Amino acid sequence: MSRDQGASFLKGAAILGAGALLSKMLGVVYRIPYQNITGDLGYYVYTQVYPLYSALLILATAGFPIAISKFVAEKLAIGDVYGAKRVFRVSAVVLSITGLLFFVLLWAGAPWIASLMRDVRLTQPIRSVSFALLIVPIMAAMRGYFQGHHNMVPTAVSQIGEQFVRVTTIIILSYWFMKTTGDVYLAGSGAVFGAVTGAIFAFCIMLLFWRHNRDRQRQYGQVQAGAMAGQSDTVREIVRKLFYYAIPICLGSLVLPLMQLADSFSVVSMLMRGGYGSDEAYVLKGIFDRGQPLVQFAAFFATALSLSIVPAIAEAAARREYHLIAGRTELALRLTFLFGLPASIGLAIVAGPVNVMLYENGNGTTALTILAFTTIFSTLGITSAGILQGMGQVILPVRNLLIGVLIKLGLNIVLIPMFGIVGAALSTVCSYMIATILNVYAVVSLTGVRFGLVSFFLKPFTAVGMMALAAFVARQAAEHSLAGLISSPRLYCTAVSLFAVGVGVMMYAASLLLSGTVTRSELESTKAGRRLVPLLKRLRLLHE
């Protein structure tokens, strides 16, 4: 690969990664205002239905953009423009058929699915979201075609636009239905319909990019397409290759929605088995799902790190530079640990006031405190999965997460009737913990990486311990000093949360530097870190 090609690839990967991260961020933050608008029962409606749509969407489309981009790029590399367009046309037809099939299944099966979830009123929200399956698959084919041309901008722009319109639809329709009818199931139907409006908007964006590039494609195609037309693969061969490359990626993408689906089909049933009435069980499920945005938000760092670690590990593996693989693996896991551990402990300490700050009351605080510990395992799981993928072990992290899903289902059945949503939180933490342990064990076996007792465990735990103590003391001090000054419970908890978090972050940063967990050489390896070195030296916070 030439220097220009390498730079172009890195730029494209950066654009695609930034678009994906921003899209995911938009896809998380809306849940808090939505819960504030519809309450815990309305939040339950949304979180019951959307994972089902996500799973079917992944089955219909996931992996195909990557597979399509691979085959399109291969055809273009040998000048076969006709073959590249043929790959797109065949892929578009195949994906449209799969999307139509899953739409019919979801629409027709909605009453049956709702009854399995123990709430027949979910039929309308399930049908409302099903229409998106008619639009998204063809859009996935278009994204893959553009990526095959090393043009990542259409994918990134359409992803961000899709999420923006979806979130806007969710907020507007849920507010309007609650204001006019007060029906949380109608509000939930309007919210999940945001997937349809978002898909339509993103499809329009893709059409604009397609039209913008059409003349250039025609001019290029007139020169080279005719000579290669007879050498293109058959339809059967294209379809076989597409499924061969797309299915492993699809399985890897499917596991996380399966974690949420396991809750959708089991939590309410197990709560009712434990003695709760149906309406109370629905509300408790909504309360339990409060923890999802917080855990997902904390995972953004690991997602971003995973996007960069996969090609870095793959490059070192291709060159058989095993010491480099071990070094990059240790660094990636240590950075993830340094972020995930304080995020888990910190959220557990301030779970009470944060719950009120975001969701207006303290219901489910114990479950939220337990769910906080999911963060350390989910972040390490994401990073370790990225390392395994870089090593070419695509199926291994999928298998481990599937084991986690099965364990979650089993623990839900045992723990929820006894402990309610606290049992559901415990099963979530245990399932992620086991899946992550399996991943890390595989990473150690394949890379030979070794974790230093002092640098990887003792120093981070010391820093987190100091942070936890500072955050706890700050929370107690703020609660006592602000008790008579702020009358609004939500504003009071907001002030307490922000103060405790601020003190905890500052203490953790200082502890990392004073303990030598983060050294000068590591800071100087990044552009932002080099700017901080002079200031930290003056403050005597930096070890060599």
How many runs of DSSP E, i.e. beta strands?
0
* Percentage of residues in strands: under 5%
Which regions have little confidence, pLDDT < 50, spanning 5+ residues? 1-10, 221-230
Q: What is the helix content?
A: over 70%
- Average predicted local confidence, pLDDT: 83
| Largest sheet data | none
Using only C-alpha atoms, the radius of gyration works out to: 25 Å
Distance between the termini: 37 Å
Helix tally equals 23
Order of helices and strands: HHHHHHHHHHHHHHHHHHHHHHH
Kindly name the structural category. Answer: mainly alpha
What characteristic shape results from the CA principal axes? globular
Tags for this model:
23 helices; 0% strand; mainly alpha; globular; disordered N terminus; 544 residues
Describe this structure in words.
The protein has helices at residues 3-29, 31-61, 64-77, 81-116, 123-130, 136-148, 153-180, 184-192, 194-228, 235-273, 278-288, 291-298, 300-318, 322-349, 351-359, 365-371, 374-390, 395-419, 421-447, 453-482, 489-514, 520-523, 527-538. It has 544 residues and is an all-alpha fold. Helix 17 runs parallel beside helix 19 (421-447). It is globular, with a radius of gyration of 25 Å. Mean pLDDT is 83; it is low at 1-10 and 221-230.
Task: Map the helices and strands.
Blueprint: H1 3-29, H2 31-61, H3 64-77, H4 81-116, H5 123-130, H6 136-148, H7 153-180, H8 184-192, H9 194-228, H10 235-273, H11 278-288, H12 291-298, H13 300-318, H14 322-349, H15 351-359, H16 365-371, H17 374-390, H18 395-419, H19 421-447, H20 453-482, H21 489-514, H22 520-523, H23 527-538
Helix pairs in contact: 1-7, 1-13, 2-4, 2-5, 2-7, 2-8, 2-10, 2-11, 3-4, 3-6, 3-10, 4-5, 4-6, 4-10, 5-8, 6-9, 7-8, 7-9, 10-11, 10-18, 11-19, 13-14, 13-17, 14-17, 14-20, 15-21, 16-19, 17-18, 17-19, 18-19, 20-21
